[in-house]
User: Fold these one by one.
Assistant:
Number 1:
Amino acid sequence: MKIAIVGAGISGLGCAYALSKLDNCEVTIYEGGNHIGGHSNTVDLTLDTPSGKVSHGVDTGFLVFNQRTYPRLIRLFHEIDVEIAKSDMSFSVSIPKQNGDVLEWSGTSIDSLFAQRKNILSPSFLRMVKDIIRFNRICTKLAADKRLDEIDLTVGEFIKKHRFSQEFQDWYFLPMVGAIWSCPVSQMLAFPIATMIRFCFNHGLIQIADRPQWLTVQGGSREYVKKLCAHIEQNGGSFIREHVTSVSRNANQVNINTAHGTISYDHVVMACHSDQALDVLKDPSAEENNILGSVKYQDNRAVLHTDSSLLPSEKKCWAAWNYASTQSENLQDQEVCVNYLINQLQPLPESWANQPVIVSLNPVVEPKAETIHADIQYAHPVFDQAAILAQQNLSLIQGLRNTWYCGAWTGYGFHEDGLRSGELVAEAIQEILRSPRKTPISA
């Protein structure tokens, strides 16, 4: 059976790897972008050191994972022998206050929490801390008691119901959720609170103890991409580095069209963003239009640079993730800005120890031009009610007309979600191979 996969991110590669291990599958992956791997995007950085120029790979997209909530990724990395290293998920906030001061704090320790010593006696700051503890306690109990399915509230409604303070919202909660999902926090306020609590609880974000150890790929995420591609090719899979201009379907086959011609396949897996899939489908059904068109995407700019002035002015507050804002009001309408301190996230050369290496997502202050080494655009799904409904209805179109859909957009938007969706599609196609007359199985 000939299978085309459109998109070579983790979803497409994971699906291709699973299918390529089957004796009766011939897999071809199409990728029109400038690299294989999607959000796994390692950039070579060269810096001057006392011993001369030193180069090393720096990740600008996918960075961290853990054994608890990324079981499929852990298994895959073990299978293809990917070397991993310990990472960090510390978090800081730097945000102006209405009186003109800048509030800075980090959750790394008591010392960094009160890095600005005046906050020890600040009623508003202590109110935030008290509400963080209260929020974590309430959410942990709801998750531990398995009562989340009883809650039919949005994030905004939940915050209002429990009367969390404005300081809690503006100085902690909104920066945190915006940083996690890389989108304006106003969009997260419409997110179902049950889904958010479940995610935060599983990832150890709302409890002090029993937090997972975060990990990263030694040498950058491109190392796993290289190994995964090698395994796919060793199993007979192939890559076509061209943009797919359209996908047309009839009763018996799927035609993949590029600028260089048309190739026919038995099945196609759309392992790309849902809007990209809809753009290339030549004759989408009403349900495909509705489901794929319901998921919106947020464009985000990632800048790799070495301008340490974008980090908190209090060095005690430097963390792996550093949320920054230039305004004290209307945070809900502001693009999220996070300055990722790569030195705390990835193993880097020892000669770079005194040189902060930063990836800024939507920088609110432009890094000095001479410090910029890469400027990249990413798009992240927006998980509003329409997107969640699209996820729930995906089974209505999955496998019909020999067309399958996978991607991180089908879950929480993270690497594990992308891999899971790709592997489930591969399992469903394998079931079709075993029983070719069966109705397509929902993935």
Note: Residues 23 and 127 are 62 Å apart (CA to CA).
Number 2:
Amino acid sequence: MATDPSSFRAFFGSVPTAVAVVTAAAPGGGPHGFTCNSFTAVSADPPLLLVCADHRSRTLPTVLTAEAFVVHLLAEGGADLGRRFAGSPADKFAGLRWRPSSVAGDAPVIEDDAILAWAECALADVVSMGDHSVLVGRMENAVVRPQRPVLYQRGVFSPWRVACEAMPQA
């Protein structure tokens, strides 16, 4: 018998994870985005990453149409941004500075101190798995800044201070 969805969420919710905001823009459409903590590296050569998007996500159709997206890793102080893109406000981008990507189909690149790093991606593959789609992105450009990351565990955002103590400062 398979594990029920509640136990599944409790199991994975107990794992501290980094947090990302994934953005996309369809031709002629506005920007879209969602918060994600299911993402990982796939390959260094070629540079591939994956993110998982709920089939109910309003951003997923935009990613599929645009065939491009940007993954923004959140820094300490990024909890509000993570909550904003996890929710359903009418305009998640209201008051945010962002620019269209020049290499990822005009997907929004958020220009905020709450962003630790971002990867501009071309959609390389999509696999439907259960209630999510696995989006594989070919990294066309990546930028990493010296901020510290934020973690998410059991519904709480927190700083990653212990791991950062050993991290060299840039």
Note: The chain has a mean pLDDT of 91.
